[in-house]
């Protein structure tokens, strides 16, 4: 059927008789057009910022000693990758930080989910422990780094402990709130049908809280990285945080930016992997498209 749609401003209007297939095809075309436009502007902004940084450094609009330049940062990364750093191989230092962050992330996430769901389902226990959780959560987590290092030493355990505590409270708070926000009507219907407390938790409460939990996991890995790097700042022999600390001490701006760039890339890759896992585990959730206008 020809000429079944026409544009009115920024919206697509459909005439009577338009088939569902044509409507869907038009909607998908609008989504692809919007995604292309978004990607274009993302790349354009990145190119502009990097280009202005490079130009400003080359023209001495900013002091290259303090701000370095994109070419200097890439040169330092290449040097580290091919020749190593003052503290050994770049990849070994990266692995040390990733090991600390990953162990802290998984331990903090799993514990946070179980404790959040457990206290969310038991109001009596949540009332008892709420004051202690609030008191501990009020402490800035990064200030615990010296305490952990004093107790556990400069090795892996102190960094894992800090990464764990950074992740735990984020995941716990979301899991707890997700349980509290579960649909009470669905819970009541499940109980009417004879479901036990465990069955209600497994089939109603946990699926309802999954969106909250995954929302916390998206940001938690970044917090785990922060915990590991802050711990390395305070005291460590290897790790990306140690490389940043050494670069700071030698006024190596390119080295500091290179280490930060490396951490940023790793965190974005982890975020992408988390999104893939979420999409695979939450297929039941309706696909949400952004407004195409």
Quick structural summary:
With 293 residues, the protein is mostly helical.
How does this structure look, described?
The protein has 293 residues and is mainly α. The chain folds into two domains: 20-62; 82-282, MetI-like (MetI-like fold). It is built from eleven helices and two strands; from the N terminus they run ββααααααααααα. The protein has helices at 20-58, 64-67, 70-83, 90-121, 123-137, 145-152, 156-180, 184-192, 197-234, 240-249, 253-281; strands at residues 5-8, 11-14. α4 runs parallel beside α7 (156-180) and α8 crosses α9 (197-234). It starts with a strand and ends in a 12-residue tail after the last helix. Its main location: membrane. Residues 94-274 form the ABC transmembrane type-1 domain. This is ABC transporter permease.
Please name the defining characteristics of this protein.
mainly alpha
Q: Do you know the CATH architecture of the largest domain? A: Orthogonal Bundle
Termini gap: 25 Å
Q: Describe the sheet with the most strands.
A: 2 strands, antiparallel
Structural class assignment: mainly alpha
Return residue spans where pLDDT drops below 50 for at least 5 consecutive residues: 1-10, 289-293
What is the fourth-level CATH superfamily of the largest domain?
A: MetI-like
Q: How many separate domains make up the residues?
A: 2
Number of helices: 11
């Amino acid at each position: 059927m020809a000429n079944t749609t026409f544009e009115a401003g920024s919206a697509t209007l459909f005439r009577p008789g338009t088939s569902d297939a044509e409507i869907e095809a038009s909607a998908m075309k609008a989504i692809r057009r919007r995604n292309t436009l978004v990607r274009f502007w993302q790349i354009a902004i990145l190119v502009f910022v990097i280009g202005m940084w490079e130009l400003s450094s080359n023209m001495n609009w900013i002091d290259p000693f303090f701000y370095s330049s994109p070419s200097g940062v890439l040169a330092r990364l290449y040097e580290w990758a091919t020749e190593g750093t003052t503290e050994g191989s770049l990849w070994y230092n990266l692995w040390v930080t990733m090991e600390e962050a990953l162990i802290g992330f998984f331990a903090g996430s799993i514990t946070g989910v179980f404790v959040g769901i457990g206290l969310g389902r038991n109001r009596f226990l949540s009332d008892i422990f709420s004051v202690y959780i609030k008191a501990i959560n009020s402490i800035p987590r990064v200030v615990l780094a010296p305490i952990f290092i004093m107790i556990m030493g400069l090795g892996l355990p102190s960094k894992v402990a800090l990464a764990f505590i950074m992740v735990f409270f984020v995941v716990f708070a979301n899991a707890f709130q997700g349980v509290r926000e579960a649909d009470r009507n669905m819970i009541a219907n499940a109980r009417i049908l004879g479901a036990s407390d465990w069955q209600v938790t497994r089939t109603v409460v946990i699926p309802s809280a999954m969106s909250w939990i995954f929302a916390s996991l998206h940001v938690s890995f970044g917090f785990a990285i922060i915990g590991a790097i802050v711990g390395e700042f305070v005291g460590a022999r290897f790790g990306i945080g140690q490389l940043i600390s050494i670069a700071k001490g030698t006024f190596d701006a390119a080295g500091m930016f290179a280490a930060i760039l490396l951490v940023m890339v790793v965190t974005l890759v982890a975020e992408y992997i988390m999104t893939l896992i979420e999409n695979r585990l939450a297929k039941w959730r309706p696909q949400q498209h952004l407004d195409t206008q």
